[in-house]
Design goal:
Blueprint (H helix, E strand, L loop, with lengths): L2 H22 L1 H61 L6
Length: 92
């Protein structure tokens, strides 16, 4: 999570808490503060898990691309080897 996001949440939380204290008193504000912290923690965990999922998908795609490229490279080397032994397009 970016520092700016945390600061934005902090400012938002401060404003919300000021409104709750003004309307309902400090006990209600304390309770609401705990609820907001729990909600923000859950949202942060969701964001982290989504990012982890995206990273895993990206790495899987990268691995697949390397694997496919490696397989194609080996096929090309094998074909070049065969061409060198049997002539271009030749068979055993």
């Amino acid at each position: 999570m970016r520092k700016r996001d945390v600061n934005d949440w902090g400012n938002w939380l401060t404003n919300k808490m000021g409104n709750v204290v003004h309307q309902y008193g400090s006990d209600a504000a304390d309770k609401r503060y705990q609820e907001i912290v729990i909600e923000l923690t859950a949202k942060n965990e969701e964001l982290e898990q989504m990012q982890i999922y995206k990273d895993i998908k990206r790495l899987e795609e990268e691995l697949l691309a390397y694997t496919n490229a490696g397989i194609q490279q080996m096929k090309n080397k094998l074909q070049n080897f065969r061409d060198g032994i049997f002539g271009r397009g030749g068979k055993e």
